[in-house]
Write a structure and sequence with these properties.
CATH architecture: Up-down Bundle
Structural class: mainly alpha
CATH superfamily: MFS general substrate transporter like domains
Strand content: under 5%
Number of helices: 16
Number of strands: 0
Helix content: over 70%
CATH topology: Growth Hormone, Chain: A
Number of domains: 1
Radius of gyration: 20 Å
Order of helices and strands: HHHHHHHHHHHHHHHH
Distance between the termini: 31 Å
Largest sheet: none
CATH class: Mainly Alpha
Length: 404
């Protein structure tokens, strides 16, 4: 019996690109990432309001990431034959509820409960959304579809976290999560209105997940993803207290810096996304190089100009991480795209959780510069692995036929 049994042809198999559904999925990824990452921009006021340390508040990302990491790889198995459109709409509504619980939280325990709900929603949405792009476009347009879907991640940094930071400065941090709750409900409505029916393309099996991991190119891509995301979130989760303490930035300037970081992330996504469609190895290497370099340099950036320059490099580089690493995994085993995408999403979220947790330990015990050096080191190890491997093995006599 095969690892993945076809149940229905993929939706969107017609030529071209289905713009409305792709943009709807991009809105969903924007909402998911904004909800997940909002504590980064609000870490200090949340800590003060809840009466806990920055390290403890950083656990709100760890909680969400761990739950999502556990569920993401099994999303195709858990939802079975259910239409992916229906599942996405339902779990975006759960995400809206999770943000509302977070906004109402009187203490860290209730906030943690809201973040558990968010992790459940994220796990299913990520586990399915990562594999939907190729179902909404034909071969030549798949790279563009994936770039647009993952642009939601970068745009979340531009609009989600910075606007949440501004809203918190005007009102309070709870207002930012109420806004996210409304956005989650709106995103569910847009998905319901625009997505075509997405019947199961593969029957979820544990053997399918294991088969994806046995593929050398997939395994390498997932390991690279884990290392760079682990490093990024070890450092970036604590970028606000780092910049406040080391660079002396106030809340207004900090919000502007995060906005610049996010704009650079969008540019990186739309630059490295198309490149990854042609040369995934090159795109991944460029992304990881920038993350490692920027994390190391930020430890020495003291002026506003220096901070902005480093954040531009970091943002542009990390903005291309999601689309380039996911393209690496898809290129390695295109016939297993739903299973491999689900595993990729699980590792991605596990790395967010472990990265924010490890960063909290380092920043509380060894200080701000140590957490940035930790981030740079992990990204550098991922870069080394990317340089030593490739999505597909070259075939004898056809060295030019495989994307690297």
């Amino acid at each position: 019996m095969t690892n993945a049994e076809t149940l229905a042809p993929p939706a969107g198999s017609s030529t071209g690109l289905r713009w409305s559904p792709v943009l709807a999925v991009a809105l969903a990824t924007f909402t998911v990432v904004s909800s997940e990452m909002m504590p980064v921009g609000l870490l200090t006021p949340m800590s003060r309001s809840l009466g806990v340390t920055d390290g403890v508040t950083g656990l709100s990302l760890t909680i969400t990431g761990l739950i999502a990491a556990v569920l993401s790889p099994f999303a195709p198995l858990l939802v079975g034959r259910r239409d992916r459109r229906t599942v996405l709409v339902a779990f975006m509504l759960l995400l809206a509820l999770a943000d509302a619980v977070t906004a109402l939280a009187p203490d860290f325990a209730v906030l943690a409960a809201g973040r558990v709900l968010l992790g459940v929603a994220m796990g299913i949405v990520w586990g399915l959304a990562a594999g939907i792009g190729p179902r909404l476009a034909d071969g030549p347009r798949i790279a563009l579809a994936m770039t647009l879907v993952f642009s939601g991640i970068s745009i979340a940094s531009v609009l989600g976290v910075p606007l949440g930071t501004y809203l918190a400065a005007l009102l309070d941090w709870r207002a930012a999560f109420w806004a996210l709750a409304l956005l989650g409900a709106g995103s569910a409505a847009v998905l319901a209105a625009t997505l075509p029916a997405l019947p199961a393309h593969e029957r979820g099996r544990l053997g399918g997940l294991a088969g994806a991991l046995r593929h050398r190119g997939v395994a390498a891509g997932i390991a690279i993803t884990g290392l760079v995301v682990l490093g990024h979130f070890a450092g970036y989760t604590y970028v606000r207290p780092v910049l406040e303490a080391e660079a002396g930035l106030g809340s207004g300037v900090l919000a502007a810096c995060l906005l610049v970081y996010g704009l650079a992330g969008v540019a990186g996504n739309f630059t490295l996304g198309p490149l990854s469609g042609r040369r995934p190895k090159t795109a991944v290497a460029l992304a990881l190089s920038g993350v490692a370099l920027a994390a190391a340099l930020l430890a020495y950036a003291t002026g506003v100009v220096a901070v902005l320059l480093v954040l531009v490099v970091w943002g542009a580089s990390y903005g291309g991480v999601s689309v380039s690493t996911q393209t690496w995994v898809r290129t390695a085993a295109p016939a297993r795209f739903e299973a491999s995408a689900a595993v990729w999403a699980g590792v991605f979220n596990a790395s967010i959780a472990l990265g924010s947790f490890a960063g909290g330990l380092v920043v509380d015990r060894a200080g701000n510069r140590a957490v940035l050096f930790t981030a740079a080191g992990l990204a550098a190890v991922g870069l080394l692995l990317a340089l030593l491997t490739r999505p597909r093995e070259r075939r004898p006599g056809r060295q030019g036929s495989q994307p690297v």
